[in-house]
Amino acid sequence: MHVAGDAVLGENKKERLDSMKRNKPLALVAGAALLTLAACGGGSSDDDGSNDAGAEKTFGGQEGGSKDPERQGPAEEIADATAGGTITVYLPGDPGPDSLDPTGGWSVTGNSIQQALTSRSLTQYVRDEEGQPVLVPDLATDLGTPNEDYTEWTFTIREDATWEDGQPVTAEEVAFGICRSLDSEAFPSGPGTEYSKAFFAGAEDYEGPYTGKDPKCEAWDGIAVDGQDITISMAVPFPDMDYWGAFMAMGPAPLGNASKPPNYGNQPLANGPYKVESYKPNEELVLVKNDQWSADSDPGRHQYADEFVFKFNQDQAKVDEIMLSDNSDSQTAVSTALGSDKYTDANGQLGERLVQQTSQCVSTLTPDYTKITEIEVRKALAYAYPYEDVWIASGEVPGVTRVPANGVMPPGMAGKVDFQVDGEQITYDPEKSKELLAEAGYGDEPYEITMVVYEVDPLAVAAQDQITKGFEAGGFSVKVIPVQESPYNIWLDPDNKVNKTLNLRGVNWCSDWPAGSTMLPPLLKGGAVYNTAGFDEASVNDEMDRINTLPLDEQADAWGALDEKIMTEYFPIIPTAFRNDLFVFGTKIGNPTGDGSIGAPNYKDLFVIQ
Amino acid sequence: MSADTAGPETLGSLSDEPQQQDPNSQQAKEIAGKSPMRIALGRLAKDKIAVVCALVVLFFIICAVFAGPICALFGVDLVTPLASERVDGLNKGLPKPEMGPPNGPFTWDHPMGVAPRTGEDNLAYWLYGCRVSLLIATTATIFASIVGVVIGLLAGFLGGTVDKVLSFFIDMFLTIPFLLAALTMAPIINDRFNTADNYSTIQKVALVIVLSIFGWMGTARLIRGEVITLREREFVQAARVMGMPTSRILFKELLPNLAAPIIISVSLMLPTFVALEAGLAFLGIGVTDGISWGQTILKATNLTFFREYPQYLWQPLLGIVALVLSLNLLGDAVRDALDPKTRR
Amino acid sequence: MFAYVVKRLISGVLVLTLVSMGIFLLFWFGPSSPAQPICDRETSNRCTQEKLAVYEKTLGYNNPVYEEYGKFVKGVFVGRTLTIASNEYPCAAPCLGVSFRTKQPVKEELVSRIPATFSVAIGGAFLYLLFGIPIGVAAARRRGTVADKALVSSFLFISSIPYYLFALLTWLYLTITFEVPLFSDTGYFAITEYGPFKWFSGLFLAWVALGIFGCTQYTRFTRGAMVEALSEDYIRTAKAKGLPSRTIVYRHGLRAALVPVVTIFGIDFGTLLAGTIFTERIFEIQGIGWWSLEAVQGRDLPVVMATALFSAVVLIISNLLVDVIYSVLDPRVRLS
């Protein structure tokens, strides 16, 4: 995954210099990634990686997550785990969060660290034996109780959870934390702007405790506290409230001025097994054991290592050298990325300590639904896209960091169906593309495609050259408009003069939780912000609304079925690839695994082998 | 880019030894019957280094002018192939063995190999990169020289307020950090022209303009100083007394006498602009369509490529170094030849 | 002289005003709104049109450009309070604003990056003066010998290579290919935090690259100036008086020859202090040059402004100092 700004510099050091730092948002792969957008394609099924020299990597099962409302603390011990030691985590090219305020956190980096180690919320994920994320209770005693139509959820807050200062975490503090998530001006990057604001009753008119000058959150009546019970009222049915509860934004905050932004973000009060020792934005975060945390109160977390040191903004090439050298520095270290040029070496040398983790992300091309109206043309584009060539040109490892995609929902998502639109995986096949164009009545002259390329990134430009080559072979003519700002800024601006001329755009999207509701509606519901295809079919919109009212256990399959239906009937979006991350673990790090719920190392279960 | 500094960060030396060069001094005139230019040429022809450098520069000029025919001769072109045809995606994106080094034996199909990741032919990109480099450097030199000469002439000859204002602007442009300005202006140019069909041409024109805007000050200063000494000389005074119009004095009387300083500033500017064009591309601005030595260097500094395929870095790098070096040495020889003080 | 300095200072302020106006206009009328980077950053790249509008409003992007420029200038002199979305950032004079990417006060970050850039500049300049001047003097004394010719032509050769390629090759070969022990981990490590050894080893290669390259040039300057000085009449007089050649060369010759060298060095050094983009970029030294490159790529208006003004101020002051020193060193020069 590359960031927008980095392209300007040499690849080996781009991350260092990169100004737009990688700060992957959960839902949307950030600017950089976008750029790669042009660069990432779907996969070709004939490339099954059989010529891969090193060990074959397989993903954890693809069936999707599950839930266990009964799970109670303490969390099951990890086999052979030992206590003590310091784990150093290198984050190449990743500036880390700007602020540690749990309410404002909405990035893979920040959330994966804080949710696993310092900041508890209503619910959380644990990793099961197969590597699948399981939703279990956290500060709540179960996964919450909805009413019949999901317009009211009640959570009972456990009594034995404490802050790092020894004070108990109260229901009022949890309610106040939830209330904070409604302040979209104080926390513009907060996920509350997307979820709390949209679903909670009365949230739209409430400006939040800070912007609304309501420090005790008295003016919002969407939440009620009764003893240890918290009841949240919804404006519209919100069946995914239990998933949303796993965001640290749905956790407690000290009342009053103690948690006033932006200062609270520098030293938030921890309630997880670790607390903040020191924090330098863009540089380093040191976490040490929180001795007030009790394992009995927490169904998911462990407290094995004495200390975690997160080093942000590291240089990819340097970190690769360290991790491959197996010296004393690297033995107790973890890296959250591996340079794709190092993959061959690392795969041979590291074996199990190189973990390939699906990032719950999909790269797509989005043909403008109002301009490219024939499904044949949209499919022709999918056949004319030279998947593997694009991946190579953009520096990805085919079949490893990018794998072929069949639909919008990524592997590991509940309800995902293993369908194929045309019976088998769509691969690069220019002849088939020409046939489809001829069928649609465009056989005589090339069909014109207009798209943008982020010209500051040589990799994006190289990838675009491949796309152009493939499209032209497939019977299209391509007009490429070079731009120097994030393509999203263009795609999302309806008044942009360049945007108006485009008929092919793209989005890279990652899920916020393993449910189709965080993939399909944001990308394909009429009027959704990131629906850059402009796809708008009443029947699909209605179906999305209907699924939201189904019983919880039926929803996952319904989303999977809808994914298949949209793709086979309309093919409004061309999924070019599912994306994978590579994590590297030192030889003395125990239990080297990834966290399937978020696309990060599984910090909760790591330990130092003593 | 300042005419007064020769520091490393200014990318090249726009100035030489701090000696006063005065090719029009009495000494030079006393050599009977030969114009200073003839003398200089004669000296140059005897300078072995100058001759070698001139030949190297000529080689690059031939490469640039005949890039197309040479490519045809070797059967290579700029066309982007499908990456998987020529490079191995599972082996770090390095070229397949049949494409030549580093993984295979030399092949005439791709005499300089192919680029990792994209499989584009290195020879074709090298030749066209040479063309881009020389084209941009030459045009920028012409424009910057014209601007510099005009401003230097006006400031030096008119003096007074005009001189003060122009000198102020010279100082101001010397104070603006060139790289920052160029980096800031690139996106504006992109935004204005990115939908145009001939965008890559416009981009090069813009680059020439940016280079010229920040490259004229050295010439202007040099010319201004020269004009200030010349304007008090007898033949100018005489022309004034005879009532010659200012423009005529400027262009008929002064300009011919400025040939030496102009040649000197051109000889300093050319290599600087060649280096600068590649330097900007290396920083990610300037030419972005891939046909530029600087951009190839940027791609080739990927550590894995550098370790396993150093030729990929060395090809454009040697191009720049050889061209800049011979232009610099040639310029040095020209300056020596024009300078009556040096006797070789 | 006092009047001259005042005059130069006034013209310097005028230059600063024009430069800052130019940058302001470039951004204000640039392709993307100046509010875009902060909106992208604060919303983790989920900057929708509505959110952008909020930032544009609080940053004053809807106001006329002269009004905002006025506010900026006022901030520099008396300080101001910046509002970004709903958060307020007090900013005392001289207020250069807060970074649109990191929201850190620009002034503090500028100050925190100065040590890195100054370390590079001072170390590099020290090396090239240390070697450049003595070698130049020696070459001038042995003018015309084989050693002199070999030295001059080899130095001419090195200094004709574009500096950034020279630095790039130094870095690639010394750290990657040969992995020079102790010095291959380049970068700036604060002496207070990591100790003098780490500081030294991190910067060493950058100094070497700057030093070698600068040395070749200063050798040529010094040699040229020295040759000229030694051919002056007063040197001949001194020789005729029978003064020892050591005294002639160092007391009389070098003193005169140093004047033009000092001039060039002053301006050179100013350029180095203003931020060495290529050196810092190649050797991963996070100083002013690095920061400015980052800021331009991130369209970070306040930081671009601050770095451009900083380098302009440094250049103006160093030019002025050079002129003053020149007049002190060379009594023939009168400042007016």
UniProtKB/TrEMBL annotation, chain A:
Residues 65-74 have a biased composition (Basic and acidic residues). One of its GO terms (biological process) is peptide transport. It comes from the Bacteria. Gene3D superfamilies: Dipeptide-binding Protein, Domain 3 (3.10.105.10), Periplasmic binding protein-like II (3.40.190.10). Pfam families: SBP_bac_5 (PF00496). GO terms for molecular function: peptide transmembrane transporter activity. InterPro entries: SBP_5 (IPR039424), SBP_5_dom (IPR000914). Residues 39-74 are annotated as: Disordered. Residues 135-528 form the Solute-binding protein family domain. This is Peptide/nickel transport system substrate-binding protein. It comes from Nocardioides alpinus.
UniProtKB/TrEMBL annotation, chain B:
Keywords: Cell membrane, Membrane, Transmembrane, Transmembrane helix, Transport. Residues 130-331 form the ABC transmembrane type-1 domain. Residues 12-28 have a biased composition (Polar residues). Residues 1-31 are annotated as: Disordered. It is found in: Cell membrane. GO terms for cellular component: plasma membrane. Its main location: membrane. InterPro entries: BP-dependent_transpt_permease, MetI-like, MetI-like_sf, OppC_N. GO terms for biological process: transmembrane transport. Belongs to the binding-protein-dependent transport system permease family. This is ABC transporter permease. It comes from Nocardioides alpinus.
UniProtKB/TrEMBL annotation, chain C:
GO terms for cellular component: plasma membrane. The chain crosses the membrane at residues 9-29, 116-139, 151-176, 196-216, 256-283, 303-329. It is found in: Cell membrane. InterPro entries: BPD_transp_1_N, MetI-like, MetI-like_sf. Belongs to the binding-protein-dependent transport system permease family. It comes from the Bacteria. Its main location: membrane. CDD domains: TM_PBP2 (cd06261). It is a multi-pass membrane protein. The keyword NAD does not apply. GO terms for biological process: transmembrane transport. PANTHER family: DIPEPTIDE TRANSPORT SYSTEM PERMEASE PROTEIN DPPB-RELATED. Residues 114-326 form the ABC transmembrane type-1 domain. This is ABC transporter permease. Keywords: Cell membrane, Membrane, Transmembrane, Transmembrane helix, Transport. It holds the Pfam family BPD_transp_1. The keyword Oxidoreductase does not apply. Signal peptide: none annotated.
